[in-house]
Amino acid sequence: MWKFPEGKAAVLAAAIVLSSGTAASAQDDAGDAAAGEAVFRACAACHAVGEGATNRVGPQLNALFGRTAGGADDYAYSDALVEAGEGGMVWNHETLSTYIADPRGTVPGTKMAFGGIKDDQDMADLLAYLAGFSEGDAAPDDAEASADDEPESGDAAAEAAPAVETESNAAVPVDQRPGPGDHGNFGIGRPASEEEIAAWDIDVRPDGKGLPVGSGTVLDGEQVYFDQCATCHGDFGEGLGRWPVLAGGMGTLEDDRPEKTVGSFWPHVSTVYDYVRRTMPFGNARSLSDDEVYAVTAYVLYLNDIVRDEEFELSNENLADIELPNAGNFIADDRFEEDHYAEKDPCMSDCLDAPAEITMRAQVLDVTPDSGDEGSGGGAID
Amino acid sequence: MSDDDTMAARGRGRRGFLKSGLLGGAALAAGSLTARAEGDPAITEIKDWNRYPGEGVDARPYGTPSQFESEVVRRNVPWLTAESISSVNFTPLHELDGIITPNGLCFERHHAGIAEIDPAEHRLMINGMVDTPLVFTMADLMRFPRENRVYFLECAANSGMEWRGAQLNGCQFTHGMVHCVMYTGVPLKYLLEEAGIKSGAAWLLPEGADASAMTRSVPLDKGLEDCLVAFKMNGEALRPEQGYPLRLVVPGWEGNMWVKWLRRIEVGDKPWAQREETSKYTDLLKGGKTRMHTWEMEVKSVITSPSPQKPIVHGRGRTVIAGLAWSGLGAIDRVDVTIDGGMNWHTARLDGPSFPKALHRFYYEFDWDGSDLLLQSRAIDDQGYVQPTKQELRAARGPNSIYHNNGIQSWHVNAEGAVENVEVS
User: Fold this and answer.
1) According to a count of CB atoms within 10 Å of the terminal CB, is the N or C end of chain A lower?
2) Angle at Cα B48 formed by Cα B47 and Cα B50, nearest 5°?
3) For residue A217, which of A317, A295, A288 has the smallest C-alpha distance?
């Protein structure tokens, strides 16, 4: 039996009222569907919506409003969400707002390992966008969307639409514009401030240069991983669908189908830290704290048996000292020393001992798009 | 091949064409018979477009291709990737000619979708081992001296799905991760010198503004030699999917390094070992070693027509083989074509401008006698490198190298003119 958490519902109702009162330029009380399309990018890693949308990591979201929880055809839901649906949970503005804000807190046991959308305006916009793919009664309940009762909040409206900084010179009177800088040959551009450099320069090198001060343990990382990573990478780093495999594959690099993971292939731990920090979780980049990145990096090392102690703490002090097993197997580019590049005058006539024979045909595999019997070929772009 | 051979082939071909026309075997030949008897309706009937005026000048403010060209689009291979946000699609090489790729047909490769960036909010930062870390607006960049240069861009994984064997029927899919446009931009050298490169600096780290924050380590020497910070392609602003408003151009080197949505370049003394230069875009060899920093795209060519998506439909007779050749090390000196799977080779005709590190167009015209063909092309660049066979590459590198597959492509043409991707002995 699914019960809608009362505390959350109350907070949510207030949030919707607030957002409907502040979204001055929105087309309706529910939010701005155009802005919601941008918010949906955080969801698009797993969900499809619109014409031809199919189930992927998550169910397709057409005709979502009014759908019983766990009710998309042919999607393998968690037991928890199916039970919620059987208990009467139907997707509408209220249930979606609560669920999407905190999926695992709302329906414990759901497969949807997404941290949640915390911003009320983002939520309203997202639901307005999704409602556009639902026919019929997708409007928020009157009780929740009584914007008329709420005064416009000038401050909040200003916050919702922050002034965009425009190119510096356009709005500056001529006599107040900066003259040529005293740098370089042309005096073009301006010095970058330390704050600006710090905001963008987050790259980390194998020798540890660039690591922020901080730390995190394997156990801390396990929680971050289950909340943020397991949906795509699997509970054990095995990778779901065609999402990258993170763990295992030791000793497979000479196999026909090598499994290239952090443990079996990657040369440096710094790359894990750098990459997670700049891009993960996919769809919500730069949302993890530096300590959370240490923690989840430690957990990925643990999944690969690089560290074996759950209490192990990874930090800026010890990260660069950890060696990965395959580090010594990377070599410089020596392609041009290969035999076939030796200087030669290619043969022009009577070049073969016997007439050429076909040894392999693409049609045997038949994995070309629109070939009729389209299967899945070998190799992948990742 | 001598001129005498050519004349002899032409003679046979002309007789062959007349014979097929008399038999009425090919659809086209049947059409021309009707035309001879009653007049071709394409000529004898007055067409709507000949009678009624068409749309006015503003009907298509940004011009689009003819409705009859609707099949000429980029296409993807859905099974390749988990989903389309981090994926690739392919240039329809089989439908194009010349050496310039139209902007809307340049293949796409994104690691976190297309960033939609307001140029007024875009900045380029130069930081690291420089005297003065600098920030440029787009307007700032327009005040540096500009250059216009034509380059190909090829993904290191182009033809990667073919590494283990023939798999995809179409040069769009086997070779379509390449395009070639004219870039307008500022030599990176000017921007680096504006900030002042400190002694000991040896590497650059360009970074994108998209949600993948793409980064690659690039040797400083390359940055000073010929890299551009580009804002235009084929005369107009970069397309969003090609990095609008700013991308790095790294001539001749693998496409992943041409960072799109370029927002920062750091100067340093060592490479950064980023994800895309360690776990990806490295070449796993037999024996378990892995080559890294395999930057240059080696000499390569492919016959674009006929090809599986572009069969021969005119029957026997005069036939044009068209193709593309390129090398990340320089210009193309020569392309050879074979129609018998490599027994005998004929030097093709290079046509159009020849720029280093750009696509080159080649043609080989011959009279098809209607028998099976095994077509291949073999390019030679001005550094003397000869395009290798796939067998040679596999022998040298093993089954898992995947990237940098510049092996010779084989197409089988059957008697009906249908074309299949094959490998030959």
Assistant:
1) N
2) 65
3) A295
Domain boundary among A149, A174, A202: A149
The answer to whether the CB of B412 falls within 8 A of the CB of B373 is yes
Q: What is the ipTM of this complex?
A: 0.88
The H or E element that residue A338 is part of is none
* Cα separation, B376 vs A32, whole angstroms: 55
Decide: B228 and B149 in contact? Cβ < 8 Å. yes
Would you write out chain A's pLDDT as a tens digit for each of its 382 residues? 344 444 443 443 333 333 433 333 334 456 888 888 888 877 887 788 988 888 877 888 998 988 888 888 888 888 888 888 888 888 888 889 888 888 878 888 787 877 788 888 888 888 888 888 887 544 444 444 344 444 444 444 334 433 444 444 445 555 555 555 678 899 999 999 999 999 999 999 999 999 999 999 999 999 999 999 999 999 999 999 889 999 999 999 999 889 999 999 999 999 999 999 999 999 899 999 999 999 999 999 999 999 999 999 999 999 999 999 999 999 999 999 999 999 889 999 999 999 999 999 987 766 777 765 555 555 555 5
Cβ atoms < 10 Å from Cβ of B369: 15
Say yes or no: A129 and A233 in one domain. Answer: no
Residue B191: partners with Cβ closer than 8 Å, 6 or more residues away: B124, B126, B134, B136, B141, B144, B229, B265
A57 and A132, same domain (yes or no): yes
Q: Do residues A130 and A242 both lie within one domain?
A: no
Tell me if A69 is assigned to some domain. yes
Is the same domain home to A145 and A11?
Answer: yes
Q: Which residues of A touch B143 (CB under 8 A)?
A: 186, 188
DSSP string, A135-161: -SS-SPPTTT--GGGSPP-HHHHHHHS
Residues 31-50 of B with CB under 8 A from A: none
Q: What is the Cα–Cα distance from B78 to B83, expressed in whole angstroms?
A: 8
Residue A254 lies in a domain: yes
Claim to verify: residue A133 and residue A235 sit in the same structural domain: no
Same domain, A220 and A145: no
Q: Which residue of B has its CA nearest to A285?
A: B211
Expressed as residue numbers, the domain containing A93 is 6-149
Q: Are A247 and A309 in contact (CB under 8 A)?
A: no
Whether A369 is in a domain gets the answer no
Query: How many contacts (CB atoms, under 8 Å) link A and B?
Result: 306
> Is the CB of residue B361 less than 8 Å from the CB of residue B304?
no
B399 neighbourhood in chain A, CB within 8 Å:
256
On whether both A231 and A127 belong to a single domain, the answer is no
In a domain, A163, yes or no: no
Closest CA to B183 of B254, B116, B239: B239
Q: Which residue has the tokens 């930062």?
A: B125
Contact present, A222 and A299 (Cβ < 8 Å): yes
Chain B residues within an 8 Å CB radius of A35: none
Pick from B55, B117, B110: nearest CA to B87: B110
Q: Look up the CATH number of the domain holding residue A262.
A: 1.10.760.10
CA–CA separation, B232 and B246 (whole Å) = 8
In terms of domains, do A142 and A226 share one?
Answer: no
Q: Which helix (H) or strand (E) holds B6?
A: helix B3-23
Residue B87 contacts A, CB cutoff 8 Å = yes
